[in-house]
Amino acid sequence: MSAVQPIHLTASRSTDMEPLILPFERISAADLPRVGGKGANLGEMARAGFPVPPGFCVTTAAFDAFLAGCGELQALYAQLEALDGKDVEAARRAAESTRAALGHAPLPPTVAEAVLATWRAQGSEASWAVRSSATAEDLPDASFAGQQDTYLNIRGAEALLDAVRRCWVSLFTDRAVLYRARSGFGHRAVKLSVVVQRMVLPEVSGILFTADPITGRRGTVSIDAGFGLGEALVSGLINADLYKVDKATGELLEVRVGDKALAIRPRPEGGTWEERLSEDVRRARALDDAALRELVAMGVRIETHYGKPQDIEWCIEAGRLYVVQTRPITSLYPLPEPAPSDEGLHVYASFGHVQMMTDAMPPLAIQVWRLLLPFGKAPRGQGDAPSESRILTTAGSRIYLDLTPLLRHPGPRRVFTGILGHVYENVGQGLRTLTDRPAFQRGASGERARLSAIGRFVVPIVARVLARLFVMEPTRLRPGVESFIESRVAGVRARLAAAAPGAARLREARLALSDLFSQVILTLAPNIAVGIIANRLLVNLVRKGVLGGTEEDLSALERGLPGNVTTEMDLAVGDLTDRVRPYPALAELLRSRPATEALAAARDVEGGPAFLEAWRAFLERYGMRGPGEVDLSRPRYKDEPAPLIAAIVGGLGTASANRAAGEHRAHHAALTAKAEAASEHLVTASRRGLLGGLRAGLARRWVRVARTGMGLREHPKYLLVRVLELARDAVREAGALLVQRGALGAEEEVYLFRFEELIAALEATQTPDLRTLAGERRAALQRDARRSPPFVMASDGEIPSLAAREDVPPGALSGTAASAGVVEGLARVVLDPAREVLHAGEILVAPHTDPGWTPLFVHAAGLVTEVGGLMTHGSVVAREYGIPAVVSVSGATQRIRTGQRIRVDGTRGFVEVLDGGAA
User: What pLDDT does residue 874 have?
Assistant: First the structure.
């Protein structure tokens, strides 16, 4: 151990208002700014009566006094605050220079005296553990685990003061500085307390999680245990024992005895040493059943005290259990709310994964979908506000659908998991895993009524699907859909225009959203469903030999579909690109200037006026669309044109990859021609043999129904985004009024509140100040945005894990084959289509895509996404464009880098990195 720096008798800042030392018994959770997360938790547990070894905290006031002795402090902090978290070497240099400066800062004598006086009063003859406790650690949303230093078995005054100093300096370790820079925590705002705690000399120690950190199950306690001090376990020096226990029943669910090769023991003179364990000891259980029961009971009590799952450090000395730390388990994804009202296990599917938009959404955007979804709504009385769907829940600012009523009954479960498995393979597999659990069937009573309510929608849809499949002339489908959409949009526009701005218009918007989907489902859903069903009938019958044709015919049928509104938008983006292509100055303007600025300047360059006229026409029809358009709060193209400009610039290509004008439309026309030729070949091949005329007739009809119906797949969303545009205008208008009255600080804050909250604020005689609440909700939304949402989860928190595929080449990234074909090319990882440009011929690698992303598809050679299934948006559009696609590739945007050469096998469902770079 290094010698302590000499104590310089220099003045420290006055600490009359803030104590330098706080014993555990005087600390509560409210003292976190004084004693940091670790210290606050220890004090809270000690006050609550849990068996915490005695000790005290050297407060942040003492830390401030220590920093005041460093004359270079302001310059050092300025260097730290300039870090962006990306330059690792810069972070290391800044951290090293800060540690070097603080290593020579004087230790304030008042602090040293206070530490030693308290230490002597509590027992200077004992061994002590000295731990760092930062004000930004062990928090509900960030643990900062392992960022600062800990020193064990400290004995003597000099060693104690040295350990305190080293803990303070460890706030600026390389890892701590880099972690804060990457996580957005200001370096000046984080302070350090030091926990000085009587050292427990344990026979056994370990970690207890009151919820399973691997599966997410809140009802399972997971315990890691080893011999000696816990440092061997947390440092990864041993394979600890693993015990899993049912929290409610005490049943031992799993025991995995680890190879505990060593134990860390304290030395009499201070410090620690490693003891190699004998063969019979290292493979023996560290905990017997009695110790497990005591540990589980202790964990449950601590969790109950804090009201959330805990990560608890514990140890056993001379048969007595001690708790030396607890913190929230920050890695768990939040449970869906509201919680189930019955005792059975509920199962939820992610709405965002099916919609290919998994970002966190603010409260108003989530409420919009509660209003839109017609299932599970309570009857609305005269004058009542519109009811909201009870099958829609919220977890981590994402929408989850409670599918329990459908899945608890064997018949609907088979049908629904089959449909969802076809739409999104991972969702189907996850649902089957969760519904196989025995706990899922408990609480099934009362679901029949809810299932009947859903059936009231299903029966009319089935009847209409059958009529379209066998009776209705296919050419009538598209005009009927388009007429319905126009009438609905006109009706909503008239209703909103007739209402007064503010509260009255918000009420009308809420009502219009509530009424929309009940009619949409009955009118538009059959037209989409019949296209998918007809296509599946053709696929199955061709593969069984009942109808003629080939796999190539079946694949071609899904390309060049007629009437797809999203494809028409993408082709229109290609037309805009062609308007720019002949004019180098216009192209350079769009490349080099921000989108809004470039559009304003375009009128003054050659080709600009004609381009702007086409641009205005495009926005007139498609300006309400944009990335993440299912979220009411997200900017539309008319608000933020950057994604469209990026798509246009990418379509212009590079010197080595120029494309001819009209190539995008020629490509689509060629796909349409191939589809028509495949249709004729399939019909002709079906005419052979007995009953050939009947088979050919059915084949011809179902080919027309399939292509027409699948071409209408995007129309419901097209209607939705047009209605959302009208509602969004009313909401933004209300936001402007509330900003004008001082209730909100910015118009965008309006999305952080529900309709009824906004209406009440607008109608209040004295306008409330909503700015503080807006700040709290914005912070919660930002925390949730950093979470990775599961595609399926259970009400007890379980997130099912899927078995790894064995049919992919070594090192390949597996996923779902979504659009047949193989392509090799350069990868372009795009996280934000407004900021990154996909150049013609590159392979798009994205977290997800929705219609707002698909202008990029016109130029893409292939597609890889982290989420998606066969029938989700990106897959359908990729098949229509004829580009190979693999979706549901876990971690694709982290495991593939822009510029790597990759091979996308859309037939077998995997991606290979070819250029030798690590994937």
Answer: 83
Residue 154 lies in a domain: yes
Residue 577 located in a structural domain: yes
Is 304 in the same domain as 351? no
Query: Hey, what are 392's tokens?
Result: 């829609």
321, 345: one domain: no
Cis peptide before 338 (omega within 30 of 0): yes
Quick check: is 150 in a domain?
Answer: yes
pLDDT score, position 691? 85
> Tell me, what's the pLDDT at 5?
38
Give the CATH number, domain containing residue 844.
3.50.30.10
Using alpha carbons, list the distances in angstroms from residue 844 to 366, 615, 653, 781.
29, 25, 14, 28
Per-residue confidence (pLDDT) for residue 138, from 0 to 100: 47
Quote the CA–CA distance of 473 and 476 in Å, as a whole number: 6
pLDDT (0 to 100) of residue 453: 57
**Is 823 found in the same domain as 841?**
yes
In this structure, the answer to whether residues 183 and 287 fall within a common structural domain is no
Task: Identify the active-site residue in 187, 664, 848, 873.
Answer: 873
Torsion angle of alpha carbons 224, 228, 233, 238, nearest 10°? -100
Residues 297, 396 share a domain: no
Alpha-carbon gap, residue 849 to 628, rounded angstroms: 8
Alpha-carbon distance of 468 to 524, in angstroms, equals 12
* In contact, 644 and 573? CB cutoff 8 Å: yes
Pick the last residue of a domain from 280, 304, 332.
Answer: 332
* Nearest one of 461, 470, 471, 483 to 527, comparing CA atoms: 461
Longest dimension (CA), the chain: 107
Report the domain count for the chain. Answer: 5
**Phi, psi for residue 653 in degrees, rounded to 5:** 75, -175
Please check whether residue 604 lies inside any domain of the structure. Answer: yes
Write the single-letter amino acid at 490.
A
Q: What does the alpha-carbon distance between residue 763 and residue 104 come to, in Å, rounded to a whole number? A: 62
Q: How far apart are CA 430 and CA 425, in angstroms?
A: 9
pLDDT in tens, 611-627: 999 999 999 999 999 99
**134: which strand partners?**
192
Strand order in the sheet with 843-846: 813-814, 910-913, 901-905, 822-829, 843-846, 862-865, 885-887, 816-819
220 in the same domain as 180: no
Coil, strand or helix: which one is 163?
A: helix
854 vs 449: CA distance, rounded Å: 41
Rounded Cα distance, 416 and 454, in Å: 13
Calculate the CA 350 to chain-centre distance: 11
Q: Is the Cβ–Cβ distance between 747 and 735 less than 8 Å?
A: yes
Q: For position 243, which CATH number holds?
A: 3.30.470.20
Q: Which of 144, 179, 199 delimits the end of a domain?
A: 199
Are 213 and 325 in a shared domain?
Answer: yes
Q: What is the DSSP secondary structure assignment for residue 390, as one 8-state letter?
A: S
Question: The tokens of 281 are what?
Answer: 């000891």
Of 280, 325, 332, 286, the residue nearest 302 (C-alpha): 325
Query: Please, how many CA atoms are within 13 Å of residue 461, restricted to the half-sphere of its CB?
Result: 19
Q: In what order do the strands lie in the sheet with 241-246?
A: 252-256, 241-246, 220-227, 204-209, 310-317, 320-328
Q: Which stretches in the chain have pLDDT values below 50?
A: 1-15, 138-139, 141-144, 655-656, 917-919
Selection from 590, 679, 686 nearest residue 642 by Cα: 590
pLDDT of residue 420: 78
**Taking the complete model, does pTM exceed 0.70, yes or no?**
yes
**What's the CA gap between 310 and 89, in Å, rounded?**
35
* End-to-end Cα separation, the chain, in angstroms: 43
Domain hosting residue 836, numbered range = 813-913
- Tell me, yes or no, whether 176 and 251 share the same domain: no
- Is residue 407 within 8 Å of residue 385, measured between CB atoms? no
Rounded distance, CA 398 to CA 358, Å?
7
Active site residue 839: no
Between β-strands 192-198 and 128-134, what pairing exists: parallel, antiparallel or unpaired? antiparallel
